[in-house]
Amino acid sequence: MTAQVNMFINGKSVPPASQLYFETINPADGTVLAEVARGTEADIHAAVEAADAASETWGSVNPMERARILNRLAQAIRDNMESLGRMESDDMGIPYEAQHIVIEGSAEFFEYYAGLAPSLQGDTIPADQDKFVYTTYEPYGVVGIITPWNAPLNQAARSAAPALAAGNTVVLKPSEYTSLSTVEFARLASEAGLPDGVLNVVTGFGPDVGAPLAAHRKVSKVGFTGSVRTGQAIGAIAAEKVMPVTLELGGKSPNIVFEDADLAAAIPMVLFGFIANSGQICSSGTRVLVQRSIYEEFSKMIAAAAEQIPIGIDKPFPCLGPIANQMQYDKVLNYFQSARDEGATILTGGEKATGEGLDDGLYIRPTVFTDVARDMRIVREEIFGPAGVLIPFDTEEEAIEIANDTDYGLCSGIWTRDVSRVHRVARKIKAGTVYVNTYHDHSVGAPVGGYKKSGIGRERGIQALRQYTQMKNVTMNLA
Question: Which terminus of the chain, N or C, has less C-beta within 10 A?
Answer without folding.
Answer: N
